[in-house]
Amino acid sequence: MIRNVRTYNHFCAVARTLELVGDRWSLLVIRDLLTGPKRFTDLMERLAGITPKTLTQRLRELTDIGLVTADRAPGRREVQYRLTDAGQELGPVVDALNWWGLQHAWRWPQPGEPLHVEHLLGAVIQAINHTTGDHQPARWHLRFPDDDYLVESDGHRWSLAATDPQVRADVTVTATVEAFTQYLFAPAATPEPDIDIVGNTKAVQRFKRLIRAIADVVGTP
Amino acid sequence: MIRNVRTYNHFCAVARTLELVGDRWSLLVIRDLLTGPKRFTDLMERLAGITPKTLTQRLRELTDIGLVTADRAPGRREVQYRLTDAGQELGPVVDALNWWGLQHAWRWPQPGEPLHVEHLLGAVIQAINHTTGDHQPARWHLRFPDDDYLVESDGHRWSLAATDPQVRADVTVTATVEAFTQYLFAPAATPEPDIDIVGNTKAVQRFKRLIRAIADVVGTP
DNA sequence: CTGGATCCATGATGATACTG
DNA sequence: CAGTATCATCATGGATCCAG
Questions:
Q1: pLDDT score recorded for residue B5
Q2: Distance CA B19 to C1' D19 in A
Q3: How far is residue B123's CA from residue B121's CA, in Å, rounded to a whole number?
Q4: Which of A103, A112, B156, B205 is the most exposed place for a label (fewest CB within 10 A)?
Q5: Residue of A12, A27, A123 with shortest CB distance to B13
Q6: Which strands form B79-83's sheet, in the order they lie side by side?
Q7: A65-68, long-range: CB < 8 A, 24+ apart
Q8: Which of A19, A7, A59, A93 is nearest to B105 (CA)?
C-alpha cells in the first residue's frame, strides 16, 4: 500500500509530528488506544462517525510508522491494536489537547451526540490533575455495564486505563453510564440506588470531595 | 463565509479541540503566532508550501472561533495577526508536539527543505527545557540578518519570542542562519568569525554549556 | 459475527495566475 | 502587501458488499 505522503517539509519538529499524526482521526485513534489495547470493533464504537475504510487506513499508517502494532492471536480472528512505546509517549500531546478543550471548548452533550464514558473519564482525569492539588496515591475501580476502568494516581499524576473486573481498589463505583454522568454534573442530586460507591470510608470521602471539586470545570455548559 | 463544519460530534474535549485546530496547517499557523504577532507575508514565509488561499482560510477560521485577531492600523494596508489569550494557551499543545517530534521524528534537513531559524530555535528551547535541569533566569539576544529573537528563562521554563534589536540581554549572539545552524550541530567546529557571542563571561559560558548539552538531542540525524 | 474491501460522491486542499 | 480566481487533485464520507 502506498502511504499517503502529505508532508509539510519544514525543518520543524512540530510539523514533523503533524505529518505523522495530524491527519483527521489519527489522534483520536491514539486517544482511544492510550487507555489500553482495543479491537477494530471497539475502536469503531468509540470513534463514532468514522468509516471502516478510514479506520483501516489510519491503523495501517500508524502501524507503518511504528506507533501501533497489530497483535493477532494465532488461530483467533481477533486483532488487538496496541500502542508502541513511541505511541504511548503521545500521551502528553493528547493530555494538552484535552485540557485546552476542557477550558475553552467544553459544552453539554448535544442531542444525539454519542457519549462514551471513557472520554468522559478522560475529562475527569485532566480536571483532577489540573485543578486539585491532590495527587496522593489512589485506586478507583469504576464498573459500568459494558466496561471496567481503573482511575489511579501514582503520587504524581492521575491516569486512566481500561481494566478487568477483578481489580482491587480503595474505592469501587458501580453505575450505569447515565447515572455516572449525572453524578458528575450534579453529585448531590443523584439518587443512591443509581450509583453505588463502596470502599474505605476516608477513600470514599476523598472520591466524593474530588468529584465535587471538579464539578465547575467538567460541569460547565 | 460558511465555516467548514468538519466536526466529530463526540462528547470529548480532545475531539472538540481538534475540531477547532485539527485542520491541516492550523496548528502551524498557531506555532508561528506563538512567538509574536505577524503579517500575512511573514506567515507565508514561515509556512513554506501553504497557498495564500489556504492561509487566508485558516486565519479567517481561527479569527471566527476567537483564537486570532487581525489588527489593521488605520490608513495602513498592513494587517498584524495576533493570538488571543485562548490562542496563546495552545502553547502547551504545540510544545508537546514539538518535544515528541524532537524525540521521535527528528532528522537532518532534507536537500531543499526550507529552514526557518525560528523553528530551529523552537527545537532548542524544547531541548533545554526537557534535558537540562537548568532553569535559572536568563536573557539571550539572538541577532540574525533578518530577525531578532529573545530566548529567555523566567526561572521556571524557557521561552522564545521575536523581539526588537534594542533589547538588553546577558548574552548577545550575532550570526547568519547558516552559521548558527552549524554551531548548534557542531559547536566546536564553527569558526569564530562566523558567529559572535558576547556578554558577561559567566553568562556566555553558560550559553555554550547549554548548547553543548543539547547537541545530542537537536543534532541527532 | 468480526474485520474489513469496493464504489462513488463531495469537499478540502494544491497549483498557478492575477489584482485592489 | 494582502489577498482572489480558476482549475485540478486527493482525502474523506456514505453506502454497500464480502471473506474467514
A1: 62
A2: 36
A3: 5
A4: A112
A5: A123
A6: B38-39, B79-83, B68-72
A7: A65/A20, A67/A20, A67/A21, A67/A30, A68/A29, A68/A33
A8: A19
- Amino acid A133 reads G
* Dihedral pair phi/psi, residue B172, rounded to 5°: -125, 125
Place of cell 548574552: B171
Cβ atoms of A96 and A126 closer than 8 Å: no
C-alpha cell at A159: 491516569
User: Rounded to whole angstroms, how far apart are CA atoms A216 and B2?
Assistant: 33
Pairing of strands B148-153, B158-162: antiparallel
Give the number of other CB atoms < 10 A from CB of residue B17: 25
For A105-200, where are the alpha helices, taking DSSP H only?
Answer: 117-131, 177-185
Contacts of A104 (CB under 8 A, 6+ apart): B17, B86, B89
What residue of B is the nearest CA neighbor of A114?
Answer: B10
pLDDT tens per residue across span A134-193: 999 999 999 999 999 999 999 999 999 999 999 999 999 999 999 999 899 887 776 677
Q: What is the per-residue pLDDT across B179-215, written as a single tens digit (0 to 9) for each?
A: 999 899 887 776 677 899 999 999 999 999 999 999 9
Number of residues in chain B: 221
Average pLDDT over residues B156-173: 96
Q: What is the DSSP letter of A188?
A: G
The predicted pLDDT at position B1 comes to 36
Sequence-ordered strand ranges (E) for B73-211? 79-83, 138-143, 148-153, 158-162, 171-175, 195-199
Question: Nearest nucleotide by C1' from A60 CA?
Answer: C4
Residue A204: all three cell numbers together: 470514599
Which residues from chain A sit within 8 angstroms of residue B101, using beta carbons?
12-17
Contact partners, residue B53, CB within 8 Å, separation at least 6: none
